[in-house]
Amino acid sequence: MFSKALSAAVNGIDGYIVSVEADVSDGLPVFDLVGYLGSEVREARERVRISLKNSGYLLPAKRITVNLSPADLRKEGTAFDLPIAIAILTAFGHIPQENLLKTLFVGEMSLNGEINKVNGVLPVVYTAYKLGFTRCLVPMDNVKEGAVVSGIDVYGVKNLRDAVKFLNNDLILEPCYVRKEDIATYEEETDQLDFSDVTGQELAKRAMEIAACGMHNILMVGPPGAGKTMLAKRIPTIMPELSFEESLEISKIYSVTGMLNNNLSLIQKRPFRAPHHTITSAALAGGGRIPVPGEISLAHLGVLFLDELPEFNRNTIEILRQPLEENEVTIARLQGTYRYPADFMLVAAMNPCSCGHYPDRNKCNCSPNQVKRYLGKISRPLLDRIDICIETLQVNYKELNTHKPEETSESIRTRVKKAQDIQFNRYKEENFYFNSQLTPKTINKYCRLGSKEQKLLEKAFIKMNLSARAYHRILKVSRSIADLEGSDDIKENHLSEAICYRSLDKKYWDEA
């Protein structure tokens, strides 16, 4: 007898349907699994066979063949255990085939028949919803994660016997529903952070506001203890809140990596990822034998903070070049190509030399060659992809001892949100949202300059020996400055400020 149960797998962060077909026929008692399977899926043969036995379902001595289709896509992981078991039981007549219509199954099975948690349930359920399925059976530990998707019934099952009884209408289960306001979210240190904690550094705060407005990449250069890390950690507090669609997109990434659970079923705050400088290329960009997203993708729609940038392996940080331009990571493997979103805001911090005090020769003992070698760890192509470079100077005693109240993150976020609304309205006919995403073609459309502004930019381009990429990034930043001031046109003062944010790399990298 032939039967079919439907499941799903994840490629990148998107799901695709996998048809689990089972056929039972006379012949030598064999249990075969076919369909371009990874080792974990091939091992399902023993897990499922023993789970069925311990759940009270004895398999007659028949030839059992299970095919996972499409056969040209490699199947990895343990999430196919449950649909394989359901397909076999249906083929033996324990479950009517019509009871499986528009139902998707996913889950790993233990030897005693219990259904265990798996990764990637959120994108799987979302795919089922988009394709018109009416219900999903998932492990109980994943039920809240899947129930974030509205419009489809998500049932959590503890063991195989409960799943079979439910499909045979012998057991009543209630679908799980999760209201957005009831979803648990991050409870991190960043919840208590505020820009009012930062004393002084007015120039740096201004640059952070501009960067958050247009989602521009920013580099801070300054001596130790100047507040670079303190500033970086507070950037998410001035960024507008995530929309539900953005939360869902980020949560799909975290679901694939196994970082979601029933206590954290939807990411509602912008990610802030700060990997250590010893991180490997695969951990930063993603990869592995079974590819998973890296820190770049985990920072999607949030902040990726690289502290002590020159201490990172040069080959590792050079990986950032393509994601910074294309806003996605592509990982090619023999069995397929995986794409992960990587639309993040890069925030980097570094000392100007190995001791941290260059160009103050009263404190810095580094030779010119040592300074040049230290700064040379950051390549020009990577610097060109950073829109804003600022210097964070040491805060003096008077600034630290002042009792003047500092501006709060909430008031800064209000201005940022207003400027971003201007961008959303301007680019509503485009396929992007922020000034940092402007292409050379759209720059000519949205960043037109008057004659005075053109002369100023031409003078800066020649004097600073800018590249074409740096030229475009000055225009993008000046567009964001104009938006913060509510100006339709880019004025001289907007352009001058944007040029100042490109002068720091000349001071250090050209003069070192």
Account of the protein in words:
The protein is of the alpha/beta class and 512 residues long. 37% of the residues lie in helices and 17% in strands. It contains 22 helices and 18 strands. It has helices spanning 39-42, 44-54, 81-91, 121-130, 143-147, 160-167, 202-214, 228-233, 244-256, 281-285, 295-298, 314-317, 321-326, 368-375, 380-384, 397-401, 409-426, 440-446, 451-463, 468-484, 492-500, 503-510, and strands spanning 2-11, 14-25, 30-34, 63-69, 103-105, 108-109, 115-116, 135-139, 153-157, 218-221, 272-273, 286-287, 292-293, 303-306, 328-333, 336-341, 345-350, 388-391. A five-stranded parallel beta sheet has the order 11-14-17-10-18. Strands 1-2-4-3 form a four-stranded mixed beta sheet. A hairpin with a 2-residue loop joins strand 15 and strand 16. The longest helix has 18 residues, at 409-426. The N and C termini lie far apart (77 Å).
Summarize the structure.
The protein is 37% helix and 17% strand.
Structural topology:
Blueprint: E1 2-11, E2 14-25, E3 30-34, H1 39-42, H2 44-54, E4 63-69, H3 81-91, E5 103-105, E6 108-109, E7 115-116, H4 121-130, E8 135-139, H5 143-147, E9 153-157, H6 160-167, H7 202-214, E10 218-221, H8 228-233, H9 244-256, E11 272-273, H10 281-285, E12 286-287, E13 292-293, H11 295-298, E14 303-306, H12 314-317, H13 321-326, E15 328-333, E16 336-341, E17 345-350, H14 368-375, H15 380-384, E18 388-391, H16 397-401, H17 409-426, H18 440-446, H19 451-463, H20 468-484, H21 492-500, H22 503-510
Parallel strand pairs: 3-4, 5-8, 8-9, 10-17, 10-18, 11-14, 14-17
Antiparallel strand pairs: 1-2, 2-4, 6-7, 12-13, 15-16
